Amino acid sequence: MFEVGFTEIVLIFGLALIVLGPQKLPKLASQIGRWVGRARAMARQLREQLDQEVNFEETRPHTPTSVAAPPAAPASPKTSPDSNPDLQAPHERPGQ
What we know:
The chain is mainly alpha-helical. The N and C termini lie far apart (86 Å). Helix content is 56%, strand content 0%.
């Protein structure tokens, strides 16, 4: 996608030399080198940490987790609409 070849690097170096001058260019190059080194170290640490996490998950023994059954509901007497007049619809009540 974005490739920088040798000629582009030489062109960038030449422009930087003209703009910054020979005194500031070495300092800037060393600072950029430190930044790149830190970024690589951070990327390496992240990669190692992710590998450790993946390996930990793979080596950890998998024990099936049992799902507890819900508590049993208290026993209640069955009522039907026929035996309880309060549960009957108004049009089904006897005497109406």
